[in-house]
Amino acid sequence: xxxxxxxxxxxxxxxxxxxxxxxxxxxxxxxxxxxxxxxxxxxxxxxxxxxxxxxxxxxxxxxxxxxxxxxxxxxxxxxxxxxxxxxxxxxxxxxxxxxxxxxxxxxxxxxxxxxxxxxxxxxxxxxxxxxxxxxxxxxxxxxxxxxxxxxxxxxxxxxxxxxxxxxxxxxxxxxxxxxxxxxxxxxxxxxxxxxxxxxxxxxxxxxxxxxxxxxxxxxxxxxxxxxxxxxxxxxxxxxxxxxxxxxxxxxxxxxxxxxxxxxxxxxxxxxxxxxxxxxxxxxxxxxxxxxxxxxxxxxxxxxxxxxxxxxxxxxxxxxxxxxxxxxxxxxxxxxxxxxxxxxxxxxxxxxxxxxxxxxxxxxxxxxxxxxxxxxxxxxxxxxxxxxxxxxxxxxxxxxxxxxxxxxxxxxxxxxxxxxxxxxxxxxxxxxxxxxxxxxxxxxxxxxxxxxxxxxxxxxxxxxxxxxxxxxxxxxxxxxxxxxxxxxxxxxxxxxxxxxxxxxxxxxxxxxxxxxxxxxxxxxxxxxxxxxxxxxxxxxxxxxxxxxxxxxxxxxxxxxxxxxxxxxxxxxxxxxxxxxxxxxxxxxxxxxxxxxxxxxxxxxxxxxxxxxxxxxxxxxxxxxxxxxxxxxxxxxxxxxxxxxxxxxxxxxxxxxxxxxxxxxxxxxxxxxxxxxxxxxxxxxxxxxxxxxxxxxxxxxxxxxxxxxxxxxxxxxxxxxxxxxxxxxxxxxxxxxxxxxxxxxxxxxxxxxxxxxxxxxxxxxxxxxxxxxxxxxxxxxxxxxxxxxxxxxxxxxx
Length: 796
Hints:
Layout: E1 22-28, E2 36-41, E3 45-49, H1 56-73, H2 78-81, E4 94-96, E5 101-104, H3 117-120, H4 123-134, E6 152-160, E7 166-174, E8 187-191, H5 219-225, H6 241-249, E9 253-257, E10 260-264, H7 267-276, H8 285-294, E11 295-299, H9 310-314, E12 316-317, E13 320-321, H10 322-327, H11 330-339, H12 346-361, H13 378-390, E14 398-402, H14 410-425, E15 429-433, H15 437-440, E16 445-450, E17 459-464, H16 466-471, H17 475-479, E18 495-502, E19 510-516, E20 519-523, H18 530-537, E21 544-547, H19 560-563, H20 567-578, E22 601-606, E23 609-615, H21 638-642, H22 646-652, H23 661-672, H24 689-700, E24 707-711, H25 719-734, E25 738-742, H26 746-751, E26 754-759, E27 768-773, H27 775-781, H28 785-794
Parallel strand pairs: 3-15, 3-16, 5-14, 14-15, 20-25, 20-26, 21-24, 24-25
Antiparallel strand pairs: 1-2, 1-4, 6-7, 8-11, 9-10, 12-13, 16-17, 18-19, 22-23, 26-27
Helix pairs in contact: 4-12, 11-12, 22-23, 23-24, 27-28
């Protein structure tokens, strides 16, 4: 029964159901949050700000969105939940007023070679149905146009166990669209044998040129030499055909080497398992260089990179095959679909038009459906995920965005803002984690977390409107109106990287000289060809160190100390000081606590319910055996060192009896990129996207390259941290390095010595150099979109 009552003929009292207009969070303690309590208005756009590592993602994603998803999962039966990812209840006392959360995060799309923009958004599925109905000649059902489906034929007898068992003759046939040569990948890989061994030498003479394979003592080499399949004293080029086949492609078999049973397998499968199955970013630099030299990918000669069988390519609507449709820019494909008039498939054409128009509306009309999903930037991947929500009729839903302006030119940010406001105006709650002032400006409500990062953050410093934030005394409020000024003088280049006739992706035969010895910024709207120019066209062997946006893959055992190689000198220092083996100081090796195997926690799997992680009682979460913790260095044990922040460890290893120059050098680089607040043992799985990119940058700063290429290093950086990044870039250039930055942030553009602007538009409207020169000249010229926005930014 309603509690609404009329009072004296006036307006009725509000219905009790309309009183739930707040999301209430009380006592949130996820990651570094310090008992946060907050009220967020529903059906409004709320922006969460704060320095990197202040706890924004912990509050929005790990608390509010995670609990919403967990509660929705609990509405399914236990049987269904067994097939779903299990989610633990967040560390929070009370969460009230939650609605269904739709998360649109920065996670890159899977880099599976068969995943494309079309398959990731279901547009390919609609196209396959369209061609299976209208394509001439007709070759079969939708699966016949799918490069993920292989053709299958089978016949034989099957036994049906029902009542009286009886054998039934059955035949089965499925027509797939997969190219048989490349298996739907579009490219074929070849291993360059000359990079694996010197065929003029024998195995005994050290024929292998693979890193770490030494002929005298290495077990792997001994397996080949003593297998009996080949003569270890005979040059490889003199092997018979059978010996070479066994050497390169032999099936795994057990062999005895020096009295020990080991497995022998051919060199090619061995290399594929040892090197090619691992994440390239996780390999040591010299191994990564070897893999890049040894493996070549070429376009499949049979399907010409379309991934499709000959039958799928031959079926056409008009003169267009499904391969042609997927290769078109999406805005051109949308026009083609709009011109199709076939009443028998009218509902399908309507849905397909809406999906393609959504791509254009969100600024991704320059993509093609056959673009591999793994090649999309974080910002592009996020906007592709938004496609399915734009036309949704759902209301009273909570949309959660993680920096939706990433990878967007200032010209495109207004379009993104309009989309966020449109979602809100349909009656949805929109929660946005953001750093860009242009995106913060449209907020109805702002929540500022901080005041610092890591242990210095985790509290709510401010709640209110944008104007109140601007007047407030928080780090974000003080820096909201920051503007970098154009430099009075710029550095002179010391040389140039010559790029000639670049045609990668949409580049239109570009000739450009990228100056060396300076800070060069490459700009242009999203899709104008910046990455194609720098990542795809820089001459090989140009001594380039590239730090792109590809994610770091790390388990909960991986941490900043292991990823950067910092743990190596620390382990050696502990071992030397105590006269024991370095392996004792690794939680993944001999020093690990036997109860939890060095994880620090005991995981209990509860099937479809969230697993429980309890601190290991034997090591109290320290991950090491008690005996290992008795060994000390500089008055600290290894677990205490891993619990230090980068800033504390930098001081600890920089002087006194714990002075370790090798460790101190790595720690200095971590502090330089603004990660001084991270603890050395913090799992990589808890780091934000921006933190991971800066961790990668710190690691690569030790590489011996003359040219550094950075892809949007301001990703995930607070306004206050951009200044520190500019200082770091200056130090790199002043140290004699050449720095090339692909960037949209105007502060980085203003600070550049030289700007190369691509455009004028995206896709086939881009791919040309529209400006080369100093930032001051670009502002004065104002002939490009970048010039207009940079001029407005610096107040020119």
